[in-house]
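User: Fold this; tokens only.

Assistant: Input:
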Amino acid sequence: MAGFALTGVIMAGLTGICLYNAMNLRDNTDNIQNVQLKPLMLIAEVRGMVHQQRSWVLQAVLTKDAADRQQAITKIEELKAKIDEKGKLFETTIKSEEVKKVYTDFVAALGAYREVREGQVLKLAVAGRQDEALAAMKGEGAAKYKAAVESINNVVAVKTKIADGKYEQSVQVFLNTRNIMLG
């Protein structure tokens, strides 16, 4: 009789461990999908729009036609609004202090790039001073753009590192659970 009771206690303990591990797997899967993958898709969209903006800045600076320049500036403003919208969505998904820090760094770098782009490059281009606009774009503008791109790439790298860690953790939980069940 005591043997059956001991067997029951062992089975209950093993079931508890397996259920706990199943909860860990569910939580990690949810994290990978909803806290890592979906926000990575958002930030990848933002990164793409930042690159698109740069191409419109080039067009605004290099064109001699005022109507084409205005079209480029309109596209830049539309993309700016979309970047801000996607950025706010991304902010709502941040759970980690590390991600919060690198995203804050990106927002600051993007703001610095916008200041140069709008305050110098586009202002000079609209005034018809293409040579000066091109010089500003290639000088300080290029440095600020590079910093913005590097900082958004850092956000992607941190999110990817966290997702990889959750994946590795899930694999280890699975292996431990399998060993318990086979043992």
